[in-house]
């Protein structure tokens, strides 16, 4: 990201300084400016995806990865910053796994088909987590689809689980996160 910002500043600065020093107003001297502005805009757009990667890194620091044999995609919703998938992560010995919202941390829009055969989950389902799909480059950030519906499970969680969720910043409803914005 830092290199992209330097590149955009360099492209604009070279065009402006060369024009001022030489006193020449040429189309070719101004040509790097739109490219520099374009690189800057794309860099700012990618920062939004960087926020999700930071969220995933925080979760991966505090939670171990556990294999879940099956991840079922229920629905898919297009948003400006990436497709939001409604998924169900099956857990052995438990019934009624909550529906989760998942968005690819890297901003890719396609569903990783390898997830149907199982994936690694770091996190606590009532709070959220990260889903890492083997055999692909997919890392999905997860939050409960209905935050209020899973409130009882979060309240029943022990002090250790709540403290871990607070360290990973999974203990709050995701209202500002990119995954909750609609495409309208």
Structure notes:
With 184 residues, the protein is an alpha+beta fold. It folds into 2 domains: 2-61, no CATH class; 64-180, no CATH class. It has 5 helices and 7 strands; from the N terminus they run αααβββββββαα. It has a 7-stranded antiparallel beta sheet, with helices on one face. Helix 1 (2-22) packs antiparallel against helix 3. The two termini are 28 Å apart.
Please name the defining characteristics of this protein.
184 residues; alpha+beta; 2 domains; seven-stranded antiparallel β-sheet; 22% strand; disordered C terminus
Compile the SSE list and pairings.
Blueprint lengths: L1 H21 L4 H4 L1 H31 L2 E4 L2 E7 L6 E6 L9 E6 L14 E6 L3 E5 L6 E6 L6 H6 L2 H9 L17
Antiparallel strand pairs: 1-5, 2-3, 3-4, 4-7, 5-6, 6-7
Helix pairs in contact: 1-3
Backbone shape: elongated
Strand proportion, as a percent range, falls in: 15-25%
The main sheet comes to: 7 strands, antiparallel
Query: Could you say how many structural domains there are in total?
Result: 2
Radius of gyration computed on alpha carbons = 21 Å
What low-confidence regions span 5 or more consecutive residues with pLDDT below 50?
Answer: 180-184
Mean pLDDT score: 83
Strand order of the largest sheet: 1-5-6-7-4-3-2
> Using DSSP, what is the number of strands?
7
**Count of separate DSSP helical elements:** 5
H/E element string? HHHEEEEEEEHH
Task: Measure the end-to-end span.
Answer: 28 Å
Residues in helices, as a percent range: 25-40%
The chain-level structural class is: alpha+beta
